[in-house]
């Protein structure tokens, strides 16, 4: 989950940064990472605004979700049987992708949009497809990365 949080920090979304990391079934090796961003090469042309009347002037229609990017960036042939660590509970569209890609477990950090239709639909699809969902629990509240200690 720390790696998912680190990936999230690369997002340019000013309000919600979502990071996702996929690990394989056999040895928990990372086989994909992603974060929410505009489609490749379109970074500067599209709005990050979340509010307003006009959908075309808001981010939602354009942004690529962290989960989709993690699946698209996979380094293995497929992600069947894998687990996804993600900083926010997936939406309905990502749930479909997760199910279709064969990921079997989703470990999430936040579920701040729990009441939304998108999250409820996602949960329903995961349950029906027997994709396990579990909130990440830890007693460790932070991981400090000290670049100086890494310098050898
Ligand atoms: N499972 C999710 C849910 C949302 N996102 C992205 C889409 C937006 O960039 C952002 C949500 O923005 P907000 O409505 O909180 O301002 O998070 C995602 O990548 N994965
Ligand atoms: Zn999504």
From TrEMBL:
User: What is its EC class?
Assistant: hydrolase
Can you tell me which residues the record assigns to a coiled coil? Answer: none
Q: Provide the reaction this enzyme catalyses.
A: dCMP + H2O + H(+) = dUMP + NH4(+); 5-hydroxymethyl-dCMP + H2O + H(+) = 5-hydroxymethyl-dUMP + NH4(+)
Q: Provide the GO biological process annotations.
A: nucleotide biosynthetic process; pyrimidine nucleotide metabolic process
User: Which Enzyme Commission number(s) are listed?
Assistant: 3.5.4.12
Q: Which InterPro entries match?
A: APOBEC/CMP_deaminase_Zn-bd, CMP_dCMP_dom, Cytidine_deaminase-like, dCMP_deaminase, dCMP_deaminase-rel, Deoxycytidylate_deaminase_dom
According to the UniProt entry, its GO molecular function terms are:
dCMP deaminase activity; zinc ion binding
One term under GO cellular component? cytoplasm
Enumerate the residues binding Zn(2+).
Answer: 65, 91, 94
An example Pfam family from this entry, by short name, is dCMP_cyt_deam_1
- Could you tell me which residue ranges the CMP/dCMP-type deaminase domain spans? 1-119
Q: Does the keyword Hydrolase apply?
A: yes
- Asked if the keyword Metal-binding belongs to this entry, the reply reads yes
Keywords in UniProt for this one?
A: Hydrolase, Metal-binding, Nucleotide biosynthesis, Zinc
> Which cofactor(s) does the record list?
Zn(2+)
Q: Where is the active site?
A: 67
What family does this chain come from, according to its entry?
Belongs to the cytidine and deoxycytidylate deaminase family.
Q: What does this protein do?
A: Catalyzes the deamination of dCMP to dUMP, providing the nucleoside monophosphate substrate for the thymidylate synthase/TYMS. Also, part of a nucleotide salvage pathway that eliminates epigenetically modified 5-hydroxymethyl-dCMP (hmdCMP) in a two-step process entailing deamination to cytotoxic 5-hydroxymethyl-dUMP (hmdUMP), followed by its hydrolysis into 5-hydroxymethyluracil (hmU) and 2-deoxy-D-ribose 5-phosphate (deoxyribosephosphate). Catalyzes the first step in that pathway, the deamination of 5-hydroxymethyl-dCMP (hmdCMP).
UniProt-recorded name of the protein:
Deoxycytidylate deaminase
Native species:
Chanos chanos (Milkfish)
